[in-house]
């Protein structure tokens, strides 16, 4: 099984051409023949690896089930209303994306409720992006301090925490991570009880920084957590889709923020600032750093990955239409 992060390169060796039209010696001809033979062997091996990758990717994509419409999330406290220009993958399919395709550490998808992707795209594309969905049931998060937080001071503390987290990642064999700064300062909408902000992250020596765009939907007993995973160069595209994603997710009646009952419901031990900082004070008193997913960029393959991925998506879409047509005739 070939991991997506393997780098495939094709070297085309056309042979040496004598610029002055002079005859080559027998030893030079033998050297050229040897080089051409080696190039042919390498190209054959690369074509074999390419074919194996395509078979692996196709099988993995066919094992997933994209969904649209009204979707009740696991736990039955929140739901999504996914329009046709997006699709949802459940928790099992999300694990395949995060760990098998994007190469995050094993266990990164634990507790994941699913992911959202733009229609017409698959996770195999080099410029693909997605939204992870989780739920933290730590109690009612008060928003009383939302207007009092100094987000510049908070950023400085977050950068220190990220440095400590990076040192631990390196000891585990993963790339270093650094928090560059805000890509979008935190904003809290009191009317909808939705909070969003964006961080610019750098992983190792990656030429493109990673965008970590966060959404938090406050509820009666916890927080719905949505995170965009994308490249910094995709920030304008994410901004275009932010409002759409914000309206997709909400709590069900009885679990909304306004349904909080102080007589029977628990209050979280943290507020808005801790949500942004990515720290949650657990009941044990320990601080747990929020998980940041690393999307693997830079996959090079003989054919255009984008074209291949679009072919996968169109193939799945055609099958879905055929299935619906068969159901309607029954």
UniProtKB/TrEMBL annotation:
Hey, what's the signal peptide range on this chain? Answer: 1-21
**What Pfam families does its record include?**
DUF2167
Instruction: Tell me which species this is from.
Output: Paraglaciecola chathamensis S18K6
State the name under which the record lists this protein: Membrane-anchored protein
Q: Which UniProt keywords apply?
A: Membrane, Signal, Transmembrane, Transmembrane helix
Composition skew (Low complexity), residue ranges: 27-44
Q: Does the keyword Membrane apply?
A: yes
Q: Where is this region: Disordered?
A: 22-48
TM region positions: 286-309
């Amino acid at each position: 099984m070939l991991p997506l992060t393997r780098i495939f390169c094709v070297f085309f060796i056309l042979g040496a051409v004598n610029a002055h039209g002079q005859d080559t010696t027998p030893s030079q001809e033998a050297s050229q023949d040897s080089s051409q033979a080696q190039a042919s062997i390498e190209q054959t091996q690369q074509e074999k690896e390419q074919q194996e990758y395509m078979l692996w990717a196709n099988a993995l994509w066919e094992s997933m089930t994209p969904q649209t419409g009204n979707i009740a999330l696991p736990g039955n406290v929140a739901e999504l209303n996914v329009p046709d220009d997006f699709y949802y993958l459940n928790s099992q399919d999300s694990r395949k994306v995060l760990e098998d395709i994007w190469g995050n550490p094993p266990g990164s998808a634990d507790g994941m409720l699913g992911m959202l992707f733009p229609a017409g795209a698959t996770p195999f594309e080099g410029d693909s992006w997605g939204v992870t969905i989780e739920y933290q049931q730590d109690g009612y998060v008060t928003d009383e301090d939302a207007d009092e937080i100094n987000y510049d001071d908070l950023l400085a503390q977050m950068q220190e925490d990220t440095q400590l987290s990076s040192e631990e990642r390196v000891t585990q064999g993963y790339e270093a991570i650094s928090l560059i700064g805000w890509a979008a300062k935190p904003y809290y909408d009191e009317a909808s009880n939705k909070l969003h902000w964006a961080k610019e992250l750098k992983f190792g020596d990656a030429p493109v920084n990673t965008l970590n765009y966060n959404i938090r939907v406050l509820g009666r007993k916890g927080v719905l957590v949505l995170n965009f995973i994308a490249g910094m160069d995709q920030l304008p595209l994410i901004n275009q889709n932010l409002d759409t994603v914000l309206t997709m997710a909400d709590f069900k009646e009885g679990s909304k923020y306004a349904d909080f009952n102080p007589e029977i419901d628990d209050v979280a031990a943290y507020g808005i600032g801790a949500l942004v900082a990515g720290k949650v004070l657990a009941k044990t008193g320990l601080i747990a750093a929020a998980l940041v997913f690393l999307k693997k960029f830079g996959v090079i393959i003989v054919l255009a990955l984008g074209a291949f991925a679009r072919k996968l998506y169109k193939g799945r879409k055609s099958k879905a239409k055929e299935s619906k047509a068969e159901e309607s005739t029954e």
